[in-house]
Amino acid sequence: MFRITNRMMYNNTLFNIFTNNEGLLKTQEELSTEKRINKPSDDPTGISRVLDYRTRISSNNQHTRNIDEGTAWLNLADSTFNGMIELLKRAKEIAVSQGGTPATSDTRKTYAKEVENLLSHMILLGNTTIGGKYIFAGQKINTAPFTSGAIYFGDKKEVQIEMETGKNMGMSLDGSTILATDLSPDINGNTFLSSLNRGRGIASGSIKITDRAGNSAIVNLSGASTISDVMNAISSAGGVNVTASINSSGNALFIKDDNSIATQNLTIEEVGSGTTASDLGILASRPDNIEGLDLSPNLTTSTPLSLLNMGSGLSLTSLIVVNGAASGSVSFSSANTISDVINSINNSGLNVTAGIDSSGRGLQIVSNNSSTFAFAKEFGSGTSASDLGISGGKNVIKTLTLLRDALNNNDQNAIFDSIGLIDTNIDKVVGLRGEVGGRVNRLEGMKGIIDQSNNDTVKQRTMVEDADMAKAASDLALLQTAYQATLQSAAKIIQPSLLDFIR
């Protein structure tokens, strides 16, 4: 016969009470949080799925915020383009009214003042900002892209937003595609140091290099005049095991540490109070190699055409040079450098002088006769004039400047020809506006997809994570009844005796 001791009854009673208490606590927690899973031990497999759903929702919410910001930028660009179109239409009205014989020198000078105002307004539109960021400056969103005429201070890159994992879209725009030409040359070994940093050049001096093995050397660059000079001086520096070259993008220096074993960062420092390393874009300390900053060289006569447009190059054909009543075509079929282009224009016999403009990033044509006005326009369906930045085909600011100067010079031929350039610019802006509209549509469509994905993911997470409130309430009532029953039955079975009070 099996004997039931008091201790066994006490232990069993306590176990049942604790079990009921645990069940009550879990059920009360589910009711208070409305969650079935409150800690990993509640459902190890389920919590893994819940965390995955939460990650998706967080990612979707971030993409939604990105899309909202991108849409705001692009909508502002759309309205700005609309303002540009209206200004160009007014400029065309002026050109049409003043290109005919009824117009006089006095009326043309009067309208030249209005065109000057249109030009100023156009530059203001080019400097449009949102949240203090310039939307037409490429990735240089903190830099005003237009501060003095047709000089563009932005770059040709776009600020990208991630609208979906692995899928990006640009929300800032390159103002040089329409307002002011920027030929944006890359660098090669023959690039002059004086042309770097948009013509500011670099400070003459020395830099200190410490490789990853801890070896150091001072490199004197005071005698360097080209990129090749800099690369050779760095690569041949005694005591350090590094090699200098041009990076894969073609716009900066790349310093490679050739040590197989590293004990510290590769470091390039200034010597004294100099700024040579900073000007070269290589002032840095990296655990592997150093890729410098964009050196932004200006044009020189020796710049190859193949380096223009960030290394994409130009395929030039022909253009027409107009100087007063005279005009003629100029072919660039054998041109390889900026010098070749300039010489072809200057040797055209049209009494003009071509050269690099004040921005250092495009070309210009000037008449050698103070009584005539010179400019370039396209030959047939070509784009050489606008590609080189010497017409108004992709340069609204230069087009309006041309019209203003033609009005002031009472040059009827130039006024008439400006009409075609204005039309080209209007078509270009309309095209860009359509492109922006297409981007907005894509973003709005993607936002709808993300919203639906979020709703579906929330439902899936709810099915796994959330508690069945009706069931939890029912379970709580049953557990409370069981708990009370356990206490009552235990009180009846385990009766205290006098022995319980003997100490």
The CA-CA distance between the termini, in Å, is: 32 Å
Largest sheet: 4 strands, antiparallel
Number of domains: 4
Q: How many strands in all?
A: 16
Strand content: 5-15%
Q: Over the alpha carbons, how many angstroms does the gyration radius reach?
A: 37 Å
Mind telling me the CATH superfamily name of the largest domain? f41 fragment of flagellin, N-terminal domain
> What ranges have pLDDT less than 50 throughout 5 or more consecutive residues?
none
Morphology call = elongated
Total helical segments: 11
- Order of strands side by side in the largest beta sheet? 6-5-9-10
Return the CATH topology of the largest domain. Answer: f41 fragment of flagellin, N-terminal domain
Structure description:
With 503 residues, the chain is of the alpha+beta class. It has 4 domains: 1-26 and 476-503; 35-177 and 396-466, Up-down Bundle (f41 fragment of flagellin, N-terminal domain); 193-291, no CATH class; 313-394, no CATH class. 46% of the residues lie in helices and 14% in strands. It has 11 helices and 16 strands. Strands 6-5-9-10 form a 4-stranded antiparallel beta sheet. A 3-stranded antiparallel beta sheet has the order 7-8-11. A hairpin with a 6-residue loop joins strand 7 (242-246) and strand 8.
